[in-house]
């Protein structure tokens, strides 16, 4: 199948620049969202860096970006401010760093690279459920990299049309997959709460505790 009809005719004009920090394991996945994102944006506004460790010597451009006061990193947590509030006072043009990988991979990259603690940390305050239904998410509100980027750009550019345009190829991808035998993947949270989780429960106490928190609606 071809997704070309679902991409914008011309790359979207945005002032915000995205840096996608991609875990190497994500690069080999067939059904990933970053290629869809890069096809929607100009090359100079969406840059993808692949790796686990990012030092200042090896990545001087990224280091300069992280040290710039106009840079944000999209990573949820207790220290993160809501992007909607930050966007009201943040200067333009700006740069947003997004980590692409599973949640455990993203956590590893964020905490083991001191560069990523330099930008202001932000998160999305949204109750939107992911439309990336052909991959399992930890919770009902976890979003794919493309969805996070689409929402973040719409907020920073003050243009909801950007979100709709970027989500269109993802919706088409999922639709094609479902038409050809793929199954809808409910979140792990949904499966656990409804007694549908059919895999063996982990023996690792830390992982087991995380699953208990999912069932009890505790943010992790």
TrEMBL record:
Domain DTW per the UniProt entry, residue ranges: 2-182
Top-level taxon in the UniProt lineage: Eukaryota
Keyword Transferase: yes
UniProt keyword list: S-adenosyl-L-methionine, Transferase, tRNA processing
Alphabetized SMART domains for the sequence: DTW
Pfam families attached to this UniProt entry: DTW (PF03942)
EC number(s) per entry: 2.5.1.25
One Gene Ontology term of the molecular function aspect: tRNA-uridine aminocarboxypropyltransferase activity
Catalytic activity from the UniProt record: a uridine in tRNA + S-adenosyl-L-methionine = a 3-[(3S)-3-amino-3-carboxypropyl]uridine in tRNA + S-methyl-5'-thioadenosine + H(+)
GO annotation, biological process: tRNA processing
Similarity field: Belongs to the TDD superfamily. DTWD2 family.
Entry protein name: tRNA-uridine aminocarboxypropyltransferase
Lineage per the UniProt record: Eukaryota, Metazoa, Chordata, Craniata, Vertebrata
